[in-house]
Write a structure and sequence with these properties.
This protein is of the alpha/beta class. It is 28% helix and 21% strand.
Length: 244
């Protein structure tokens, strides 16, 4: 699955209406759309969606804000593991969205009561397995913790045809040599699961900007599959991405 982190002027089209627009600012147009607390509240838009998932404190909110070039779009709960809802962010004109980003609740926080964890499984788990509009899943993994049991559970919930981008967040916390070692280890962990999904891995740092453009390009490719201009990955993207 190739993507070009350097091409900032590629054109894409809205799958629903065939309208051309510049792909580069797509994520920057993100704005809050709605909150979904129950499956029956999922919006019937028919437009493509990309979901963001990850453990509590994995840097998910920071990553979403950085990718969308916004400071306060996504919020981290003051009590990790307590927020149990899907937050939808519309992309494109405010009165004519072309796609959505979906921020799922953080999971795996030890202090979260059993009922909260069951609610997560029911809401986010069912969403990831059954949502027809879902085009891709971005998994946040703290590079210092790598892939845990709850991450593995989540990966197995995702419908088998949905591609996955695993961002090894907080990469700035490790030296470059240890970043590469962690990337290789995470790749081996995911490969061992034998998932049918296409999976890519990318070093990522909201603080230093590592992986921002490459991740942004991949997400926009998922949301606008009719993109007209595509090239091979840049050297930087190829060096930081791992495919299993």
């Amino acid at each position: 699955m190739g993507f070009d982190a350097s091409n900032q002027t590629a054109f894409a089209c809205d799958p629903a209406a065939g309208r051309p627009f510049m792909s580069a600012p797509l994520l920057s147009s993100a704005q809050f759309f709605t909150t979904v607390a129950q499956l029956q509240q999922l919006p019937a838009t028919g437009l493509p969606e990309v979901a963001f998932v990850g453990r509590s404190n994995s840097g998910k909110s920071s990553a979403i804000n950085k990718l969308c070039n916004r400071n306060r779009l996504a919020f981290a709960s003051r009590t990790p593991g307590r927020t149990q809802a899907l937050n939808y962010f519309g992309l494109g004109p405010s009165d004519d969205c072309v796609a959505y980003l979906v921020d799922t609740p953080g999971y795996g926080y030890a202090a979260a009561p059993g009922e909260v964890r069951r609610q997560w499984d029911t809401l986010a788990g069912r969403y990831l397995g059954d949502r027809d509009e879902l085009r891709g899943v971005v998994l946040m993994v703290d590079i210092r913790r790598l892939v845990g049991e709850r991450d593995i559970d989540l990966l197995r919930w995702i419908a088998p045809h949905i591609p996955i981008l695993a961002l090894l967040t907080k990469a700035d916390k490790l030296a470059r040599m240890h970043q590469r070692r962690a990337l290789d280890e995470a790749r081996d962990q995911i490969a061992a699961l034998g998932l049918p999904n296409p999976v890519s891995l990318l070093l990522f740092s909201s603080l230093k900007g590592t992986g921002i453009e490459a991740a942004r390009r991949q997400i926009e490719d998922w949301l606008a599959p009719c993109e007209q201009a595509t090239t091979e990955p840049t050297t930087e993207a190829a060096q930081t991405r791992g495919d299993s």
